[in-house]
Amino acid sequence: MTGMTPFWEGLERGAFVVQRCRECGTFRFPARARCLSCGSSDADWQEASTAGTVYSTTTVNRAVFPDIPPPYDVVVCQMEIGITFFARAENTLPIGSRADLRMVREADSGFIPFFVAADRDPADAL
Description:
This protein is mainly beta. It has one helix spanning 5-12; strands at 17-21, 27-28, 43-47, 51-60, 72-79, 84-89, 98-106, 110-117. Helix content is 6%, strand content 42%.
């Protein structure tokens, strides 16, 4: 498999799957041919922790996608596994707050990544 196929296949299963270097263990996203830490080309894909810290946030007020009406929030998180990831958010999450990435089923789109406050009960559905 090449490119981001395993990531997208993971989303279809409701999982956060990220490329990881077999040599040094560094996670990398998006997928790359070589590890930025050690230069190795040996990598696999693993289900990863969904915990992170909000680095930046914005509210989108213009329609970007026809099936996602504005306004909605987008956050950038520094994930515990060492990558930076951005996704829609449940609501405004303050910079510096803990967030958890959930895979939420959208009616016609399958699963999409979506950040929620880390202290939110996992049993609560979005």
